[in-house]
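Key result, reporting period 2: structure in, sequence out.
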């Protein structure tokens, strides 16, 4: 049976903006950036869940909410049966240890004045992972785990390449023995050949250590390669979620279809039936009514303009939020 490690329910995040002079003159309330608009999903133990969408769709915001860098305006993240934003859970450092985030640019999150050995030892000390006497051996073990040479522990972050720095960031995350890793554009800044090495290392570690990974990336090919399931986000809402191979070979939501066909290398056979993604992503300051995709969707009707579609199971192809999913996929 599939065990759920984390449940995210109806997550909303709004960033209020200050009132502009014209807001004061007209008596308008200040505007609000609607960054997340009711995200719900389960993270299954041991899986890699890919999160995709155009830039600005809310995928990184979701990642930051999960590690409590942002507090949601509404909704819950349940881990071990508790909402991690409850007052008594806020002080719970165990969650910070068990759910670790890795960023695109490890250089800014690694202290430039500390050697790799000091960085790893500090992580072990802060969370009291080992007695002091055992720390050097554990540092050596961590370097081996991420395939860095032992002399790496005496070097500073700037002495490494981008790929090696990401390995240090992975080792630091693993030092505290997490259950969930949140990888936010982990390899986006690296060369393609180095990306593959880092991602394959991550997958191997996941297998060996039983990790659960939320993999946020804009590179669809990479997401397809690493993910068991994929969630497609549009304007802070999940519009489709399902098994990775099914979703990539036969996306059901019009937005997923357009997003994936904008990357033709994913499926060369599909070039003939590419769906064009028209128009710009609307501003999260001014959310469209009804289905947020209706202003760009070639299938939009009146109901789409007035009523928000719920995320519902569709055949055996996962869950889709679209009023007309049956008709749109009738001939696929
Ligand atoms: Fe398009 Fe309507 Fe489906 Fe939204 S609900 S994706 S507008 S068909």
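The corresponding designed sequence is given below.
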């Amino acid at each position: 049976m599939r065990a759920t490690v984390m449940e995210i329910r109806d997550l909303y995040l709004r960033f209020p903006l200050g009132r502009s002079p014209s807001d004061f003159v007209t008596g308008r309330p200040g505007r609000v950036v609607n960054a997340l608009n009711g995200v719900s999903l389960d993270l299954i133990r041991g899986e890699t869940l890919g999160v995709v969408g155009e830039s600005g769709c809310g995928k990184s915001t979701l990642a930051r909410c999960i590690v409590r860098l942002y507090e949601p305006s509404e909704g819950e993240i349940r881990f071990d049966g508790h909402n991690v934003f409850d007052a008594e859970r806020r002080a719970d450092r165990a969650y910070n240890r068990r759910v670790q985030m890795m960023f695109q640019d490890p250089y800014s999150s690694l202290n430039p004045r500390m050697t790799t050995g000091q960085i790893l030892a500090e992580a072990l000390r802060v969370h009291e992972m080992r007695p002091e006497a055992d720390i050097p051996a554990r540092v050596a073990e961590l370097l081996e785990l991420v395939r860095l040479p032992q002399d790496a522990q005496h070097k500073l972050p700037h002495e490494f390449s981008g790929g090696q720095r990401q390995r240090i960031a992975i080792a630091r995350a693993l030092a505290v023995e997490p259950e969930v890793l949140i990888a936010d554009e982990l390899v986006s800044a690296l060369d393609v050949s180095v990306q593959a090495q880092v991602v394959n290392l991550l997958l191997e570690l996941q297998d060996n250590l039983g990790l659960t990974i939320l993999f946020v990336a804009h590179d669809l090919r990479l997401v397809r390669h690493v993910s068991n399931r994929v969630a497609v986000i549009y304007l802070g809402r999940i519009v489709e979620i399902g098994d990775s191979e099914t979703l990539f070979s036969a996306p059901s939501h019009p937005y997923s279809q357009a997003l994936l066909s904008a990357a033709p290398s994913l499926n060369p056979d599909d070039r003939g039936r590419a769906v064009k993604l028209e128009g710009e992503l609307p501003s999260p300051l001014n959310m469209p009514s009804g289905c947020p995709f209706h202003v760009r969707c070639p299938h939009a009707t009146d109901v789409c303009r007035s009523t928000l579609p719920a995320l519902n199971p569709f055949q055996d192809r996962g869950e889709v939020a679209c009023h007309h999913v049956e008709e749109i996929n009738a001939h696929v």
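The two ends are 31 Å apart (CA to CA). The domain at 4-328 is CATH 3.40.50.300 (Rossmann fold). This case is discussed further under Risks and Mitigation.
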